[in-house]
Backbone:
């Protein structure tokens, strides 16, 4: 069957083996079939029997014949209105708005990010080919020849997701529930909604060997710190009496509002934490879970929580221990809002030494307006989501934006979502945009940084960041080698807005970095000139990076891309450069 769908602006023609999305201004013809003809510009949707569709009086033998005939007879040619980036195939994962051909808008759609028909290998194109001639190079060509090994690293993320469920879906035994309300009294027993405590004072004497629920009255506000030490039998901190979050306000001179030390089987849900202000570094997170050498802990969940106005991390979960002693297993953070803090979310193991956090999953977290601090000069500040020390692990369906503008470390800046010293960790289906930096260091979208091995960023969308949308980097103090990491199937649109970098940046002693099948649009737009859409920095020790099957749209003001070399291998990439209302092939390597 062949299906034709016509809307106010576009026409979609598709069979099982190919699909076009074309702006109407490029349509000139009609498709004949046994019972008549079908104008491609007729509004609505029609499905025609494939074997009745005819060209020159004869039915087509296969989809390829039909594709060639439609391209030759039904599309306008040349560089007129509408000619241009609409030749990039739309579909699950990427959308192109060509209503203004001189200013195409590329965006991503994460509702069905399987990408199906987009998984095609771009053909080798010749310099000077027009967008009309280049259609087959951007998703309409032959069947995929992508090596199966490209997908191997995703297995670790799937394993992390399953393992996290194994740890976090357990609640066994008899639990004791304690209720706390702003209208309660600490002389009550706290064992029912009718006899609640008034604050957290009585929680310090609870037995560590009894599974315990601490339930705060929905919508009520409390001040102080709710903390536990050495409680491994089980802790649930949640609400009762409604869906609204309960609020815990940080007190000056007090500990973290929620502070969990050397505990296991911890769930925190439906809680809002408010700090004392994000501008000054306090070394106190809003929700803090920490283990040291004395505990190999497991099963940690933070769900549907909000943290704001904290002068450190909104949520921090991690460990620090003697090498080879302990691990932290089974961590989940989902459906949380982290905003207006110094930093957003941090999950960490023994940082530069070991991969000691196993089976960590971050899902549907939004981290925004975490601006960093000018007073923090010894480390990066102002990131949205950061993980390190992970073995496996998955970050999925998260959004990070408008972070980092006050960062002030000369040695490293913030990113929206990034990782370092991780092995087999995957970031997928995430969006990172409008992130910034205070001093022209970093401030980008996604980053696979020092000490990472076998990690993947896939099906993600970065746009409008001051720094690069994509960074590969090995810092000189990393304790583990940087090797075999992949960026694939991502979209970067107008990143590098700070004028000091490009859409892609790489550097340091990296080996085996691969960027393939990404969509990148980049233009300087009057900014300070840079070295190109792809920028190498501190690359004297770089071993090898390969960029293949990427599609790049660059403005005429963007310098030429670097040439292939012993350090950078370019294979079957297609690069368009704007020329009036058309995009032409600048180079194909």
Residues:
């Amino acid at each position: 069957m062949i299906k034709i769908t016509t809307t106010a602006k576009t026409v979609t023609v598709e069979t099982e083996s190919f699909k076009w999305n074309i702006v109407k201004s490029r349509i000139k013809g009609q498709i004949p079939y046994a019972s008549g003809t079908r104008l491609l510009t007729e509004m609505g949707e029609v499905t025609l029997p494939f074997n009745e569709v005819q060209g020159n009086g004869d039915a087509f033998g296969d989809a390829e014949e039909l594709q060639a005939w439609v391209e030759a007879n039904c599309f306008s040619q040349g560089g007129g209105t509408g000619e241009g980036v609409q030749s990039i195939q739309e579909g699950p994962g990427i959308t192109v708005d060509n209503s203004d051909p001189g200013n195409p808008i590329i965006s991503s759609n994460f509702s069905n990010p399987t990408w199906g028909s987009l998984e095609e290998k771009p053909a080798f194109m010749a310099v000077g080919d027009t967008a009309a001639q280049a259609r087959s190079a951007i998703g309409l060509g032959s069947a995929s020849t992508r090596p199966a090994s490209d997908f191997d690293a995703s297995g670790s993320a799937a394993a992390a997701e399953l393992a996290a469920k194994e740890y976090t879906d357990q609640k066994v035994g008899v639990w004791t529930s304690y209720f706390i309300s702003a209208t309660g009294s600490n002389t009550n027993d706290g064992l029912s909604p009718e006899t609640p405590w008034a604050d957290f004072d009585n929680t310090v004497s609870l037995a560590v060997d009894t599974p315990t629920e601490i339930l705060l009255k929905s919508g009520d506000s409390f001040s102080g710190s709710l903390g536990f030490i050495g409680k491994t039998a089980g802790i649930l901190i949640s609400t009762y009496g409604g869906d609204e979050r309960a609020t815990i306000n940080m007190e000056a001179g007090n500990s973290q509002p929620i502070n969990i030390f050397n505990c296991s089987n911890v769930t925190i849900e439906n809680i809002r934490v408010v700090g004392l202000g994000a501008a000054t570094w306090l070394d106190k997170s809003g929700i803090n879970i920490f283990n040291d050498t004395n505990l190999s802990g497991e099963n940690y969940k933070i769900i549907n929580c909000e943290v704001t106005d904290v002068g450190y991390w909104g949520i921090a979960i991690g460990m620090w221990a003697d090498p080879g002693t302990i691990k932290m297993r089974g961590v989940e953070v989902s459906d949380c809002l982290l905003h207006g803090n110094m930093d957003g979310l941090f999950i960490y193991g023994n940082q530069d030494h070991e991969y000691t956090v196993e089976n960590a999953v971050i899902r549907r977290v939004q981290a925004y307006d975490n601006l960093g601090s000018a007073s923090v000069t010894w480390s990066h500040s102002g990131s949205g989501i950061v993980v390190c020390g992970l073995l496996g692990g998955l970050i999925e369906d998260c959004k990070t934006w408008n972070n980092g503008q006050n960062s002030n470390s000369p040695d490293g800046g913030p990113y929206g979502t990034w990782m370092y010293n991780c092995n087999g960790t995957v970031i997928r289906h995430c969006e990172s945009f409008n992130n910034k930096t205070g001093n022209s260091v970093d401030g980008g979208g996604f980053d696979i940084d020092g000490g990472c091995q076998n990690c993947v960023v896939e099906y993600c969308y970065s746009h409008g960041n001051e720094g690069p949308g994509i960074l590969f980097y090995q810092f000189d103090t990393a304790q583990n080698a940087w090797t075999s990491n992949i960026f694939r199937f991502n979209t970067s649109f107008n990143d590098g807005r700070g004028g000091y970098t490009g859409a892609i940046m790489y550097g340091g002693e990296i080996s085996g970095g691969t960027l393939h099948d990404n969509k990148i649009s980049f233009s300087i737009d009057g900014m300070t000139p840079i070295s190109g859409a792809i920028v190498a920095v501190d690359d004297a020790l770089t071993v090898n990076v390969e960029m293949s099957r990427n599609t790049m749209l660059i403005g005429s003001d963007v310098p030429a891309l670097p040439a292939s070399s012993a350090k950078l291998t370019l294979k079957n990439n297609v690069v368009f450069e704007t020329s009036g209302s058309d995009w032409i092939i600048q180079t194909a390597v």
Confidence is low (pLDDT under 50) at residues 76-96, 101-154. The chain is about 5% helix and 35% strand. Residues 172-257 form one domain. The longest helix spans residues 154-168.
